Amino acid sequence: MSKGKHSNKEINIKESDNFNRISQNKDRKEKDNNLKDNKKKEYTKNETKNITQNEQSEKNIIIAQIKVNQDDLKQRIINSYENIRREEADIWNWDEIQGIENEEQIKNCDIFINNEKIENNYYYTFPQEGLYTIKYLFKKCIIATNFLFYKCNSLITIDLSNFISKNVINMEYMFFNCKSLTSINFSNFNTEKVTSMRCIFYSCKSLKSIDLSSFNTNNLVDMCFMFKICESLTKINLSNFHGQNVTNIRSAFCHCTSLKEIDLSNFNTQNVINMGYLFYDCKSLTSLDLSKFNTKNVIDMRFMFKGCDSLINLDLSNFNTNNVTNMGYMFNGCNSLCSLDISNFNTSNVNYIISMFKDCNSLVELEINTNTFKTTHINDIGDIFEGCNSLINKYIYPFVNNNI
Questions:
Q1: What's the pLDDT score for residue 173?
Q2: Whether the predicted pLDDT of 120 surpasses 60
């Protein structure tokens, strides 16, 4: 074979080597490109996740305004807006409520005072008296807001419009004894899973009005003491309160001394057992339309209208009292009431009617069905008509003398 020439075998080997090198380079490039794409996708995925988390966090906030006085300058950071001394506050317990025991995950909420993030130490010293804005930024949704602002005496306003409440089931004592609270923004607040609002606004003495028209009460069971001692409250919007599962409304409006208007026309009381003290001491109420109240399961009506001394009109035409055991002091002190029709009342299971109409000194007409309103099984009906100076004897003696 002449020099400079190659055999076909050698040429084939070189071409094969070249092809392999090209293929390897191509594979390497493809792997590199795939690796880059995967990293890019992973980066994009993480960024999207972070953005989603950030967006959720930014939306899941509560903003409160407080007024700090000289005595409030140094307080526990876990409840830096209040004047009480609690060993623990729910700001530390939210994760524990959801069953998370890892100490590193306990901090579910970042706190900002006047836009400055603070550490969750036990104490915080305010630099001076005045108004402060506190922002609570939640890292995840919580299932309970009970005792959240319990006895926050310095709290003035609260904005819950960006708080995610879709998982909340318990709102008990949420604003209990917030004596300085004047405004609450509940727009967008989701209550569809809430079962208890017991004492939620108890003793919010500065609150003049509150709009709860957006509340979903389909799963609500307990409204006991809900607005008790809200003495500045003049109007309550409960137009969307259906309450078909509510069993307890004891003292719900008790001592709402300034309350002039309340619409309960859509309120379903079919499962309510306790109505005791419901409107006790509602001194400013002039009329109440309870014609749609379903009271077939009610056992307790004691003190229900006691002290409603401005009440002129009261419609109880739909009341079913077959299961009621206690009517003591029910209308005691309704001294503006001129007429009352309780001809549908059945007292067959009633044990107490003491002072039922005591001091109804303007009452002239009282419609009673002596066939269903009986007192033969009651040992003491003491003072039942004491102070009813305007009530004509024909309304009193027929059923009293015939049934004792």
A1: 94
A2: no
| Strands in 151-227 per DSSP E | 155-159, 183-185, 209-211
Q: Is the Cα torsion angle 284, 286, 288, 289 positive or negative in sign?
A: negative
Asked if pLDDT for residue 87 goes beyond 60, the answer is: no
> Two tokens at 76?
């526990």
Q: Residue 322 and residue 305: Cα distance in Å, rounded? A: 19
Residues in CB range of 224: below 8 A, 6 or more apart: 198, 199, 248, 249, 250, 251, 252, 274
Say yes or no to pLDDT of 375 above 90.
no
CA distances from 24 to 15, 18, 33, 37 (A): 14, 10, 14, 19
Q: List residues bridging with 352 in a β-sheet.
A: 326
194-248 pLDDT, tens digit each: 999 999 999 999 999 888 888 999 999 999 999 999 999 998 878 788 889 999 9
Q: Residue 162, exposed/middle/buried by CB under 10 A (0-12, 13-18, 19+)?
A: middle
Tell me the percentage of the chain whose pLDDT exceeds 90: 45
**Contact between 129 and 73 (Cβ < 8 Å):** yes
d(CA 354, CA 350): 11
**CA-closest candidate to residue 118, choices 75, 147, 164, 180:** 75
Pick the closest to residue 283 from 312, 252, 251 (CA basis). Answer: 312
Query: Are residues 218 and 195 in contact, defined by beta-carbon separation less than 8 angstroms?
Result: no
Q: Where are the domains of the chain?
A: 7-59
Concatenated DSSP letters of 373-396 = S--TT-S--TTTTTT-TTS-HHHH
Q: Answer whether 308's CB lies under 8 Å from 285's CB.
A: yes
Which of the 8 DSSP states describes residue 140? S
